[in-house]
Amino acid sequence: MTQTSPPRRDRIAFFYSIRFRLVLWFTAILALVLAAFSAFVYYNQSQAIRGDALFQMERRMDLVIGSLPASKGPSDLLGDDDIFLLLGSDGGVLASQGTASEQEALDIARSAEPNTTDHFSSREGPVTSWVAERGSSETHYIFVARGVVIDGQPAAAILGSPFDPYGLYESLLLTLLAGSLLTLAVAIGGGLWLADRAMRPVQAITQAAREISETDLSRRLNLKSRDELGELARTFDAMLDRLEAAFARQRQFVADASHELRTPLTIVNLEADRALAGRRTPQDYQQALGTIRSENQYMTNLVTDLLVLARMDSGQKITRKESLDLGELAVDAVERLLGLAERNGIELETGALPEAPLEGDRQMLLQMVSNLVENGIKYAGGAGRSVRVETGADPDFVWLTVADNGPGIASEHLQHLFDRFYQVDKARTRGEDAASGSGLGLSIVQSIARLHGGEVRVESAPGEGTVFQVRFPSD
Q1: Does residue 176 lie in a domain region?
Q2: At what angle are helices 200-211 and 228-276 packed, to 10 degrees?
Q3: Which residue of 114, 122, 346, 396 is 20 to 30 Å from 44, comparing CA positions?
Q4: Model confidence pLDDT, tens digit, residues 234-272
C-alpha cells in the first residue's frame, strides 16, 4: 500500500482545515455580493447610456423631421453609420438613406414595436424606440420612430444609429469583471492571512495538548487576549489545573492505599511465617490466627471504603431517592453501634431528635451517620467519655450533630480531617478498635454529604472535645 507523502498530507489537511473553510465561505459570500453589486451597476449604467442615447436620437429626429420632405431624406444630417427610413401607410419604403439596403430597411421596419404605421399618424404621434441588430452585423442600433405627414399622407420616419459607438458597455463589463476578480484575489490572500493569524491561538492549544502527558501537566498557555480564543485558552488552562490536581490526588491516593495495605499484608506474612516455623502451642496458633483475622478485617474495611470513594469520584448519582427522617437514621446508627461503644467504655447517647425531613439515598445517609458516630466512639478517648447524637430542623436547613467530650483536635489538623488516609494520631487517643480505622471514614462522610447538597462542619480544640455537624438544605 502506497503511503501518502507528508506534503500531500499537509495539502489534504489544509483543505479540511477551518482556515480554508472560513476563507472559502468568506470568498463565496463576497463573490455573491460582488455579482449583485456588479449587476446593479451594469443595469443602472446601461439604462443611463440608453437614456442618453435616446435623448440624443430624439433631438436628431426633431432636426430630421424639420428637414422633410426635401428629397424625402436628410442626407446632410446623417452620419456614416446612421440609417433613415420613411415608410408609407401601406408599410412600403418611401425613402431609405444610410448604410442599410432596401431589404434590410424592410427588416428594420418589421422589427419595430409595434410594426405598423397606425401609431405614427400625425406629427404629434408618440415616439417609439427599440434596439436591434443590423442583419448579420453584431453592432446594436437604437431606432427612433415618429409619425409624420408627407404630401398629405401619413407616414413613419425611422432613424437609427449605433447604440454604443464608443464601446461603453463592453468597457463597463470588462471593468466590473476585472475589478471583481481582483477584489476576490485580494480577499482570498487577505482572508488566508487573517485566518492564519486568528487560528494561531488554536494551533498553540493544539501543540500544547500534544506535548502534555499524564506525567507533565504543568504547561499552561497563558494567552493574554480578551477575545473568544483567549477565553478558550483560559478555560483550557483551568481544565489543566483541575486535571493536574486530580492526577496529584490520584497519585497520592494510590500511594496512601499502597502504604495502608502494605502494613497489614506484612503482618499477615510475619504471623503466618512464625506459625509455620515450628511446633507451637495452641495458644500461639490461636494468637496468630486472631492477628491474621484482625488484619484481614482491616483490609476488608479498607477495600470497601476505597470502592465507595471510587464510586463517588466517578460521578455517582443518587439513584434511590426517597423521603427520609434524619432523626430516624440517627437512631438506627446508634442502635447498630451500641456494642462498639460498650466495648470501648464509651457512653453513646441521643439528645433531641425532632423530625428532620430529607430527600436522599437511605443506605448512603445511614453510612454517613454511622461513620460519624463510629469516629466519635473510636477517638473519644476511652472509658468515662461520651458521644452525643442530635438532629434538628429549621425553615432553611436540617442537620445532624455528633459531639464527643474527648481530648479534642489541634487547630492545625482541622483543615486536613477530611483528607483521605489522614489520621490525627498525635492529637487523639485511639480506642480498642482503632486498628480497623482506615482514615477514609470522614472522606466518605464529606462525599455523601456533598452528593446530597450538604456540607460538613467541625469544631474542636484540645481538651474541649469535638463537634461534627452535617447540614442539608430543607426541601
Answers
A1: no
A2: 10
A3: 114
A4: 888 888 888 888 787 777 777 777 877 887 888 888 888
Phi, psi of 116 (to 5 degrees): -125, 170
Question: Please, is 280 exposed, middle or buried when counting C-beta atoms within 10 Å of its C-beta (0-12, 13-18, 19+)?
Answer: middle
Please check whether residues 288 and 390 belong to one and the same domain.
no
Range of the domain at 400: 317-473
Give the residue among 214, 443, 437, 457 at the shortest CA–CA distance from 312: 443
**What pLDDT is attached to residue 459?**
92
In a domain, 159, yes or no: yes
CATH classification at residue 250: 1.10.287.130
Q: How confident is the model at residue 10 (pLDDT cuts 50, 70, 90)?
A: low
Return the C-alpha cell found at 252. 497520592
Q: Are 345 and 304 in contact (CB under 8 A)?
A: no
Give the model's pLDDT for residue 167: 78
Segment 160-167 long-range contacts (CB within 8 Å, at least 24 positions apart): 160/82, 160/83, 160/84, 160/85, 160/98, 160/100, 160/108, 161/53, 161/57, 161/60, 161/79, 161/81, 161/82, 161/83, 162/81, 163/50, 163/53, 163/131, 163/139, 164/49, 164/53, 164/140, 165/81
Amino acid (one-letter) located at 228: E
Instruction: Please tell me the predicted confidence (pLDDT) of residue 116.
Output: 42
What whole-number distance in Å separates Cα of residue 30 and Cα of residue 291? 83
- Give the confidence band of 429 by pLDDT, cuts at 50, 70, 90: very low
Give the tens place of pLDDT for each residue, 454-467: 999 999 988 888 99
Q: Tell me the DSSP string of 360-423.
A: E-HHHHHHHHHHHHHHHHHHS-STT-EEEEEEEE-SSEEEEEEEE-SS---HHHHTTTTSTT--
321 and 465 in a single domain? The answer is yes
**Helix 168-198, helix 200-211: angle, nearest 10:** 30
pLDDT of res. 120:
45
